[in-house]
Amino acid sequence: SAVISQKPSRDICQRGTSLTIQCQVDSQVTMMFWYRQQPGQSLTLIATANQGSEATYESGFVIDKFPISRPNLTFSTLTVSNMSPEDSSIYLCSEQGPRGYTFGSGTRLTVV
Amino acid sequence: GDSVTQMEGPVTLSEEAFLTINCTYTATGYPSLFWYVQYPGEGLQLLLKATKADDKGSNKGFEATYRKETTSFHLEKGSVQVSDSAVYFCALSGNDMRFGAGTRLTVKP
Do the Cβ atoms of B75 and B46 come closer than 8 Å? Predict the structure, then answer.
């Protein structure tokens, strides 16, 4: 299975600022996914990112709030923009490889 | 759309007790089914999976069988340990991965 390096692992941010989360995969993958896990909740899909096209967002998530980049087949970023305390969550990236899905270790974001 | 319904927790068991966490799914097509585990303070880890009907996934003493007739993928373990305390997520993959709500398991000595 692919290995995903995600960073930062955690951050504490001021409200109104933005944070960019990076995921690096050790092999080329077509589809990458970004999830949010709010405290005590399950994972919710934010968007699907394919290289060379705009990300596809799930209901309730918009590009202005969560812009995503996918410049090549091994890398993706998610930005959480204009943060508020409600954005405090764990954010995870994932890739769909031939053996199934692999997840990054997550970014624990706290907005104060 | 595709979805997963998972039994609500929390579940508290004594060591060596039998564990069942129920999971049912709704899907068009023939998804693969997964159980993920999240230990305290850690990321998500794949526990086991099954890719077609009647397949049984197993790992670390945990088992789950893909039952198409009942659209279920219940997680079982015959004798739980304190180290099994974690949150367990049932999931299915179609065009993307969909997760259940998670079940928190606490095993007491």
Answer: no
Tell whether the model's pLDDT for residue A105 goes beyond 90. Answer: no
CB B109 within 8 A of CB B13: no
Q: Given a cut of 90, is residue B33 above it in pLDDT?
A: yes
| Residues of A whose CB is below 8 A from B101 | 41-42
8 Å CB contact of A96 and B46:
no
* Chain B residues whose C-beta sits inside 8 Å of any chain A C-beta: 32, 34, 42-44, 46, 49, 89, 93, 95-102
Max CA-CA distance within chain B? Answer: 43
Whole-number pLDDT of residue A96:
82
pLDDT tens digits for range B48-98: 999 999 999 999 999 999 999 999 999 999 999 999 999 999 999 877 788
B96 three-state secondary structure: coil
E-state strands within chain B: 3-6, 11-14, 19-21, 23-26, 32-38, 44-50, 56-59, 62-65, 75-77, 86-93, 97-99, 103-108
Chain B hits for A102, CB-CB cut-off 8 Å, are: 46
Say whether B53 sits in a helix, a strand or coil. coil
Which amino acid, A11? D
Min Cα separation A15/chain B (Å): 24
